[in-house]
Automatic annotation (TrEMBL):
InterPro entries: AAA+_ATPase, ABC_transporter-like_ATP-bd, ABC_transporter-like_CS, ABC_transporter_ATP-binding, P-loop_NTPase. One of its GO terms (molecular function) is ATP binding. Coiled coil: none annotated. This is ABC transporter ATP-binding protein. It comes from the Bacteria. It comes from Dactylosporangium vinaceum. It is a peripheral membrane protein. PANTHER family: ABC TRANSPORTER ATP-BINDING PROTEIN. Keywords: Antibiotic resistance, ATP-binding, Nucleotide-binding, Transport.
Amino acid sequence: MTAVIEVRQLQKRYGDHEAVRDVSFTVERGEIFGIIGRNGAGKTTTVECIEGLRRPDAGSVTVLGRDPRDPDVRQRLGVQLQESQLPDRIRVDEAMGLFASFYERPAAPGPLLERLGLAGHGGRTYKKLSGGQKQRLSIALSLVGSPEVAVLDELTTGLDPQARHDTWRLIADVRDSGVTVLLVTHFMDEAERLCDRIAVIDRGRTVAVDTPQGLIRRVPGGVTVTFRPSGPLDAQALAGVPGVTATSVEDGMWTVQGRGNLAHEVSTALAALHVVPLALNIVQADLESAFVELTCAP
Ligand SMILES: Nc1ncnc2c1ncn2[C@@H]1O[C@H](COP(=O)(O)OP(=O)(O)OP(=O)(O)O)[C@@H](O)[C@H]1O
């Protein structure tokens, strides 16, 4: 795969405040790459450097191999506007036409609006759109220049569960159509479901870059396996099994905690001992637990 965005040891300060201290990650072509972090972690500042809106104090940022302020990059990068950035009275087709006029190779607005479920709404003013329609319009506007890379910020804020799921499907379709997506989100379920890889930013630093499952596997005790052995099992039987961090037994029910591919490792170890795990149950941590684990307490 080819790097579409490269951020290397990025630093950015506002006066005395170090908003970004050391952020590095590489976004590959064709992936949905998420940036997650607490409020004030430095996500927006990082993304603004990628969009060419801010100049790094130190470190480097390239988009499609070039400086983000290069006019060619601006033609190939789509950015989602925040809700408040469109005037109430602008009509959907006017907004699409206006944004299309900024680009050399704009997409045809009709099919794009149709793809985003806005067909037939071209004559509506922005103010009259529902929250979900506004959000979909902002996505349509980010795609109207036929970009190779789309930067989406707080994609599903304020949407109902159905609209959120529809939006996720839509973004996965956008990725599948060949657009690389950089997604900034506060929602762990969104990042876990949608992103191919994620950078976790904490207090201006990247603390991890991995797939959602890779981040989850880092949680110590992130997987809990419970079972009742079919036959006698020595209390130390699973102590040396890879990934196991703790075991306990209560009323004949075993609880094994650990990380990684724990269920497989435990099953293999039990099979070697000719023990069958009855009433087997596996509970896995989610991205939220991984996030809490990876980021410091305030
Ligand atoms: N223009 C600015 N002037 C001064 N400080 C700023 C400015 N923009 C952001 N900051 C500060 O820099 C830090 C990082 O802000 P940033 O907006 O990049 O974080 P964020 O992770 O996007 O936060 P949020 O999730 O709340 O949007 C915060 O402490 C913020 O208050």
